[in-house]
Amino acid sequence: GGGRGRDRERRRDREGDDRGRDRRQDCDRRRDRDERPDDRRGGGGASFGAGRPKMDFGGQRDLGDNRSPSRDGDPPNDWIIDLLIDREKARIDRDFGQADKLRDELRSKGVEIYDRERRWEARDGRRGARPNHDDQKRGARR
Q: 108 vs 40, which has greater pLDDT?
């Protein structure tokens, strides 16, 4: 009778639980791997930036002057934001040549863009969130 059917059903449920657990563990492993810093970017170790002083673009040690974008510098924050918005518009329009030119112009002025983290960072330590293509431009001239 009915006992065999229930045993088969319980076994199937247990196997399904195992498959679900394995899938969750695989996702956790992938997430951990993706969150781990890339050695080429100066990370390393178990935690981000552990044991190694952060280097800025000129090879100088970063002494912890983490300036927010509320402080202005050279180039001005408005100019950085405007170029980042123009770059995002070019990317949305799939005009990657223009997007690369804007990225190179920002880089030449000491502004690095981290697309994966959706942020930017200036040589002097200023940093901020990368704007979206439809954000309001600030109208800075340079």
A: 108
Question: Is the pLDDT reported for residue 131 higher than 90?
Answer: yes
> What string of H, E and C letters represents the secondary structure of the chain?
CHHHHHHHHHHHHHHHHHHHHHHHHHHHHHHHHHHCCCHHHCCCCCCCCCCCCCECCCCCECCCCCCCCCCCCCCCHHHHHHHHHHHHHHHHCCCHHHHHHHHHHHHHCCEEEECCCCEEEECCCCEEECCCCCCCCCCCCC
Neighbouring C-beta atoms of residue 90, cutoff 10 Å: 19
pTM score of the predicted model: 0.51
